[in-house]
Amino acid sequence: MNKNLLVVIIVLIGIAIFGYFTYEVMQKPDIEKALFTSASETTTVTQNVPDTNMVQRKSNTTVVRSTAKTSSAKRTTTVTRPSQTTPTNPPATPVNTPTPTGTKLPDLIIESITVSPAAPKINNVNVEITVTIKNTGQGNLTTSNPVNIYIESDAGFYTEKVLTTSIAPGKTSQIKYKPFAGNDEIYDPGEFAIDAYVNIDAEVEEDNYDNNDKSIMVEFVE
Questions:
Q1: How far apart are CA 216 and CA 62, in angstroms?
Q2: Residue 134 is inside which H or E element, if any?
Q3: Cut 0.85: pTM above it
Q4: Mean pLDDT, contiguous 10-residue spans, the chain (222 residues)
Q5: Helices (H) and strands (E) in the chain, counts
Q6: Under CATH, domain 108-220 is a member of which superfamily?
Q7: Are 149 and 172 in contact (CB under 8 A)?
Q8: Which residues does 27 contact at the CB level (< 8 Å), separation at least 6?
Q9: Which terminus of the chain has fewer CB atoms gathered within 10 Å of its CB, N or C?
């Protein structure tokens, strides 16, 4: 009885030992595979370091070559560069060229506006307006540049004349206009303004452009 029990115990121990060794044998490939994989990764990382340095060395070599090319380009640019005496930013041309010192210019004004007869009747074809233009400047007004004269009234008439005569300093010229000789009419009597303008379009250069107009009030009767 004791002998049989001993045999059973020995068999069980043998089975246990066999199972243990079988388990170790089966697990060993996985362990070796894991160790191999880890070693491979370590090796890969270690090998990447020289590769990075190699790339860096290649990059440095490229930069050196690029620098050499850039230096060559600079030498070429230096040869073709224009002379330093040539201004790179020339001064802009002034918009308004000032009148040369000592130049004498005319100065045109409307000296007077008169209406005849003294008590003009509305729609009378004989009513005449006379505008006197005076040159108060020191330069001559020549005939090379005709000057426009405008005559208008809130009574309803308007005309544009051209002054074609020359005016010496201190001299005058006249423009005459008959407002009712054409189609213009006044329907009701009353007091109306008559305005005259000379050179308001600046056809002629003159000393003063602020004194080129004049206005008077005229009573028109029936």
A1: 89
A2: strand 128-135
A3: no
A4: 73 80 62 49 42 44 39 38 42 46 88 95 93 96 87 91 93 94 83 95 92 95 90
A5: 1, 7
A6: Immunoglobulins (2.60.40.10)
A7: no
A8: none
A9: N
